[in-house]
Amino acid sequence: MNKLVPITLLVVILLGVLYVYIYSNNRFRFKLSDTGISQLEPSPQVIFVSSDFHLVAPDGMKYTQPSITQGRTDVVSVTPWLAPVVWEETFNEKLLDSIYMKKNISVVATVFAVGKYIMFLKDFLETAEQFFFVGFRVSIYVFTDRPNDVPHVKMAEGRQLNVLPVPSSNRWQEISARRMELIQKLIEEKLINKADYIFCLDVDSKFHGRWGTESLGGLVAVIHPGYYRDDRSRFPYERRPISRAFVAPGDGDFYYCGGAFGGLIQEVHQLAKTCRKNFEDDAKEGIEAAWQEESHLNRYMWTNKPSKILSPEYLWQDFKARNPEIKIIRFSGVVKNYAAIRPN
Ligand code: UDP
Ligand code: MN
Predict the structure, then answer these.
(1) Which atom, in ligand 1's list, is nearest to the CA of 259?
(2) Contact 93, 214 (CB under 8 A)
(3) Which ligand sits nearest to residue 112's alpha carbon?
(4) How far does Cα 42 stand from its chain's mean position?
(5) 288 assigned to active site
(6) Which atom in ligand 1 lies closest to the alpha carbon of residue 294?
(7) Distance 257 CA to ligand 2 centre (A)
(8) H or E element, residue 286
(9) Mutate which of 124, 149, 202, 332 to test ligand 1's pocket (most atoms within 8 Å of Cβ)?
(10) What are the DSSP calls for 216-279, one per residue?
């Protein structure tokens, strides 16, 4: 009996030490998945990503010397939270491409072509072949209610087109708003741990210039071309406090586009899930934010600061005259006749 007590105590202590060891080991273990993303286990909520912070340049690459005193002076290329703002002449595309080529990254683009918007798809896909992550592994997911009308566009090697059927809708607001839900589901069902980055893009647009590795980041937002010179009080945020997309006067950094956003799969999943929930909770109370999911996206990004921001070069509008700071238009919304193409 006397001997049993210290032995039991020892066993309990040993088990305790073993438990702490296993627990801490699990918490801080990194798993390098085949996509190059390392995931912190066991919590799937918190993810450390290698593809974004460890930038390895190939040996022997020659390129122009970088400078911290010379460069563009007509635009701001960093935010107050020190996220880069991508403008032409602020990056070296050959250098970036070679860094990301070594990582063998894969990039997904989603695009919705519901109802008459299918007419925009051909140009979108053809120009994406010319300018969007050329030379990289790209999967484009087209959500449409007219799968038979998806144009046959020849895709380069390593690039693929996937068509996902969705129901038609009588209200354009609903089509545009349901995008977050469908993006969330696509990520959960097909993309987690299979692709690295995703961009969600409007179909009524065309590429006109390079959109590539310079745009990669954790959470990536595009500055709306219509408001970037304005005071924040003029941004068309949702201004009714009853909505979950509400942004108070005096708040807000930039006005971001709903027509283009992206980043790491896990980050965009978080964004889509949150925006969808807030949108649906609003809807249950009969509220629809001023600019549907764009309003929710702007609210989300006010709290969750994007780690990279793309200048309006990445979503211009064809009807707008080009401002002098826009040295290249990479992606731009076409002029459209709303009455003729929208269901309501
Ligand atoms: N959309 C669609 N069918 C519609 C309305 C919208 O497929 O009837 C999709 C399409 O991808 C479109 C996006 O939702 O690019 C956003 O709508 P829209 O481009 O009309 O909004 P805007 O850019 O004019 O604000
Ligand atoms: Mn659009």
Answers:
(1) 23
(2) yes
(3) 1
(4) 25
(5) no
(6) 25
(7) 9
(8) none
(9) 202
(10) --SEEEEE-TTTTTS-GGGS--B--TTSTTB--TT--S-PEEEEEEEEEHHHHHHHHHHHHHHH
End-to-end CA distance of the chain: 85
Closest CA to ligand 1's atom 11 = 112
259 lines ligand 1 (CB under 6 A): yes
Q: Which residues are annotated as a binding site?
A: 112-114, 117, 202-204, 224, 294
Q: Is the peptide bond between 42 and the residue preceding it cis, with omega within 30 degrees of 0?
A: yes
Among 328, 332, 296, 306, which residue's Cα sits nearest to residue 85? 306
Q: Per-10-residue mean pLDDT for the chain, 344 residues long?
A: 72 72 46 35 48 84 95 98 98 97 96 97 98 98 98 97 94 84 97 96 98 98 98 98 97 98 98 97 96 97 98 98 98 93 88
Under a CB-based contact definition with an 8 Å cutoff, are residues 195 and 139 in contact? Answer: yes
For residue 87, how far is its CA from the centre of ligand 1 (angstroms)?
26
Q: What are the distances in angstroms from CA 34 to CA 86, 95, 182, 213, 292?
A: 29, 24, 25, 20, 36
Note the residue count of the chain: 344
Q: What are the residue ranges spanned by the domains of the chain? A: 1-44, 48-341
| Neighbouring residues of 101: CB distance < 8 A, sequence distance ≥ 6 | 135, 136
Cα gap 76→16, rounded to integer Å? 55
- Where is the binding site for Mn(2+), in residues? 202, 204
Arch. (CATH architecture) of 48-341: Alpha-Beta Complex (3.90)
**175/269 Cα distance (integer angstroms):** 19
Q: Candidates 175, 335, 337: which one to mutate for ligand 1, based on the most atoms within 8 Å of Cβ?
A: 175
51 contacts: CB under 8 Å, gap ≥ 6: 35, 36, 37, 103, 105, 196, 264
Count how many Cα atoms sit within 13 Å of the Cα of residue 234 in the half-sphere of its side chain: 7
